[in-house]
Amino acid sequence: MAVRVFGKDFVVRQLTQLFPRELKATMRRTTLAIAKEARDRIRSRAPKRTGTLKKAIRHKRARGLRDFIEAQVIITKGATEKNDGFYWHFLELGTVRMSARPFIAPVVKEMSPGYVPLMRKEIQKQVVKQLEKRAAKQRKGTT
Q1: E-assigned strands of the chain?
Q2: Domain residue ranges in the chain
Q3: pTM exceeds 0.85, yes or no
């Protein structure tokens, strides 16, 4: 389904009509998509001896404060986890007997200048989704 935009006034009117709940959902999905992108990049740089560390790298939506939206990239660890990546910090920071092989810091450094364009792209995609949902509800209600 394509969304047609006929002018700036239409876009401004639609965005101001987005309810706070819809806007919050848009921002949640946007931050989660950015965390997913970071997860994928970190996974691609993670050392691949057994593949356990790569599988232990995950993204999740974090429960923040009421007006604070947060998503995280985590590495699961512990005996209860299917993929135990407890040793990630040994690889990232090194030890007395092993030099560091960072795989997280380079991704953070690489992505930091690109957050704004990535966020802009994701917000646009999510706003279009919200507008399509609203249009479908209106069509359903009128027919």
Answers
A1: 57-62, 70-75
A2: 22-137
A3: no
